[in-house]
Design brief:
Oligomer: single chain
Largest sheet: 8 strands, mixed
Number of strands: 18
Length: 382
C-alpha cells in the first residue's frame, strides 16, 4: 500500500511539474508573446526578440515612430554627438517633421510639452554626420536618406539650379507652419512660464527668427515676403494644410516667388528629462545649428520636382559648410512633401532646438541668411 501511495505521489508531483512547465512555456511563447524568450521560442533570433522587447510595435497606435525608436532602429543624422551624452539616450519632443498621411497631414495632435528647464542645465552638442549606411555624401555634403531613392549628390550639384529669380519682384517667401514653436527662456527673452516651449508672442517664437532671416536677405538685395501668420494655433492639427493655402495665395498674388522657406525649430530631450541644444561656435559667437529638410513623393503624394528642391538644398549646404563649418547639420531627405511641391525652391529649415535660446537661434538664422543670399543672388535676372 505504501508503495502504491509513493508511486501515486511521484506521478502527481511529476504531473504538477509538467503542468507548471507548460504554463511557463505558454506564458513565454503565447500569453507573454512580446517577451524576448517567447519570441525566441517562436523561432525569432535573440537580437530581433530583444529589439521587439525594447520597442513597442511601430505604428501600432497609428503614430509615427518616436525619435528614440528611430535611434534604436538606425542612427539618424542629427544624433552623432560629440560629448558625453549617448545618442541612444535622446528622444525628441517631436521627431524630424512628421510623416504626413497621404503626403499632406502632419501629426494628429500637438506633441507633449517637455518640462521647463534652466538654460544652465541644458547640454550642448554639435550634431555631425555619423556612420550609418543611410548617409549619402559628396564633396563634404551629407544627406541622411529616409527614402528608398538612390541619390547622386555630385550629379545634382553639377546639374545646378534650374529656376531664376525676377529682379524687383518678390522672390522669397518665409513662412512658419509651426509658428508658435519657441526656445528656452533666457535673460530678457521671457515669454511665459507654462513650460511648453511655445508662445503666440511673435517677438519670441519662430516669427521672430523669420524676421531676422528676412532682414538679412533684404539687406543683401533680395525681395522677401515674410508671412507672420500663426498656422498651428489655436489648432495644431492641420497646420501644414493651412500654411499650404497661405503659400498658394502668395503665389497667386506674386508668381515671381520661387523660394519658400518654412522655418521651424527642432526639439531634443533625453529620457531622463535632460535637454540638449545644438551648438556651433562661429567666430567666437555661439549659434544654434540649422538643418535643411527636403520632402519627396516617396510617401505617395505627387511631387515629381523634389530633386530641384534637393539641388537647392545641396547648394546651400555646400556654401554653409564652406563659410561656417559645423553650423549646418546633415540634410534630411524625407518621404513627405511638407508643401514643397509648390515651388522648385521650397525647403523646410530647422533652426536650433527647444534647448537653444532665442539669441542662439537668431545668430543661426542670421548666418544662414547670409549664406542663402550668396547662393540666391546670382539667380536674379535683370
Amino acid at each position: 500500500m505504501r508503495k502504491v501511495r509513493g508511486t501515486l505521489s511521484r506521478v502527481l508531483r511529476r504531473g504538477a511539474a509538467l503542468a507548471l512547465a507548460g504554463a511557463v512555456v505558454w506564458g513565454l511563447a503565447g500569453g507573454a508573446a512580446s517577451s524576448p524568450v517567447g519570441a525566441v521560442l517562436r523561432g525569432e533570433s535573440l537580437a530581433a526578440a530583444l529589439l521587439s522587447w525594447e520597442l513597442p510595435p511601430l505604428g501600432a497606435s497609428g503614430d509615427a515612430p518616436t525619435l528614440w525608436q528611430q535611434l534604436v532602429l538606425e542612427q539618424v543624422p542629427c544624433l552623432s554627438l560629440a560629448g558625453t551624452a549617448s545618442p541612444q539616450a535622446l528622444e525628441a519632443e517631436n521627431p524630424p517633421p512628421e510623416e504626413e498621411a497621404q503626403g499632406e497631414q502632419e501629426e494628429e495632435s500637438a506633441p507633449p510639452a517637455p518640462s521647463a528647464q534652466a538654460s544652465e542645465d541644458i547640454v550642448e552638442q554639435t550634431l555631425l554626420p555619423g556612420t550609418s549606411s543611410n548617409y549619402v555624401s559628396a564633396d563634404g555634403v551629407y544627406v541622411y536618406n529616409y527614402t528608398d531613392y538612390a541619390l547622386d549628390l555630385a550629379a545634382l550639384a553639377a546639374e545646378g539650379i534650374h529656376f531664376a529669380l525676377t529682379a524687383e519682384e518678390p522672390q522669397v517667401l518665409i513662412i512658419h507652419s509651426h509658428s508658435t514653436e519657441a526656445y528656452t527662456q533666457d535673460g530678457s527673452d521671457v515669454y511665459g512660464n507654462d513650460g511648453s516651449y511655445r508662445t503666440t508672442d511673435t517677438d519670441y517664437n519662430m516669427v521672430r527668427v523669420g524676421s531676422e532671416v528676412a532682414r538679412v536677405l533684404r539687406e543683401a538685395g533680395l525681395e522677401v515676403i515674410h508671412d507672420t501668420g500663426l498656422y498651428d494655433y489655436p489648432a495644431y492639427n492641420g497646420a501644414y494644410d493651412r500654411s499650404a493655402q497661405a503659400i498658394q495665395g502668395w503665389l497667386e498674388r506674386y508668381p515671381s516667388i520661387q523660394v519658400v522657406l518654412d522655418l521651424h525649430r527642432d526639439a531634443l530631450a533625453a529620457s531622463d528629462g535632460t535637454l540638449y541644444k545644438t551648438a556651433a561656435q562661429i567666430d567666437g559667437e555661439k549659434a544654434a545649428q540649422v538643418m535643411i529638410v527636403v520632402g519627396t513623393d516617396a510617401g505617395g503624394a505627387e511631387h515629381s520636382g523634389w530633386r530641384q528642391n534637393l539641388t537647392l538644398a545641396v547648394a546651400l549646404q555646400s556654401a554653409l559648410n564652406a563659410a561656417y563649418p559645423t553650423l549646418a547639420r546633415p540634410i534630411a531627405l524625407r518621404s513627405s512633401r511638407f508643401n514643397q511641391q509648390l515651388t522648385p525652391g521650397s525647403l523646410l529649415v530647422e533652426v536650433g532646438s527647444h534647448g537653444n535660446t532665442l539669441q542662439e537661434a537668431l545668430t543661426a538664422g542670421r548666418l544662414f541668411a547670409q549664406v542663402a543670399a550668396q547662393v540666391l543672388l546670382p539667380l536674379v535676372e535683370e
